[in-house]
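We read letters as residues; the fold follows as tokens. A sample entry reads:
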Amino acid sequence: MSSVANDPDGAGHPVDRPTGAGTGASSGGAHAVEDIGRFRVYLGSAPGVGKTFAMLNEGLRRQERGRDVVVGFVESHGRARTEELVGGLEVVPPLVVEYRGSTFTEMDLAAVLQRRPEVALVDELAHTNVPGSGPHEKRWQDVIELLNADIDVITTVNIQHLESIADAVERIIEVPVRERLPDWLLRKANQIELVDSSPEQLRRRMVHGNIYSADKVSQALAHYFRTDNLTALRELTLRFLADETEEQLLSYLRTQQKGAAWETSERILVGITTAPGTDAIVRRASRMASRIKADLQVLHVMAHDDANHYPNDRLIGLRQLAADVGADWHEVRSDDPAQALVDFARSGHVTQIVVGSSHRSRWQEMTGGGSVVRKLTRLASDATIDIHVIARRDAAVDTALRVEAADES
């Protein structure tokens, strides 16, 4: 599934996802991995690591082997070496779209489908399409349509766009991550290849003008491209890839040794409300579940006398978030949320419960029936279920970040 490219201008040596007989170690290993995967993703920790360069190199290699390869869309950012590689491939002309007085270029999905190549190179998987440029809001939805049309896709994405990680990235870089990618999509990739670069190497490339234009270098080095930021983003990327590699190894072992007990015994339940900061708790629970290979359930407990029988916008957003991180969504009605959570956990053999901390004052707890979290902790302890209480991210910080970004745009 994964491989590592230490050279930001190259693709490295593939170490492919275990897929059963006929891979790497077999006598036909080289041939077996040559055309592996209909959906390959080059994953990076930050702009400038060399994802697009690696994708184009792979396209040229496949073209040399006789495959019909086209560039569906590539953003060169004015980098001469990237444009040189694009020149060696057939390019499907992009759409030119006028929007709010500005001109943009987008992938012409209809033209790529009509051209029907064997392989399409599509840059920036998490990109949001300009309204009116095509049938879909997101480029990853375009990619799904290409895959469904039996066209292999090679694409690129940075770790910051992954839905379950985006909130952690926001706290690191202190700006909102607007473009999000559902976790399940990246995990559908036949191969994820890490294009890696050290923070020091990235900063050198920035200084030499290989990432941004000269007028943007100083600001980038002082903000996003600080060494501590790049180190944290690199760690998030390596952790994600390590988790995915372990999961694929377990999948391979289950296939090869069906009688062995390879299945996970951990199940995590996250109890949610519509309070601000709940989305961050769901993402945190998702990362916890991913690292221990646990199933993830999301439970919303509604009071019996709740007049709002229809989901509000916040609840709809949480439900979509649960789907994006691969969790199962459940709703129950109960006037005792702590008991409802524990009862659901028992029935579903849940081993860990994740909830957000309470913002109620001690006086509110005394006059309003006590602390739900305290009661939940006691009930869960009696049921031998572990409890994780997650500090809620200050909603004011989120708001400030988004207002600041809006002012700058």
Remarks:
- The first strand starts at residue 2 and ends at 5.
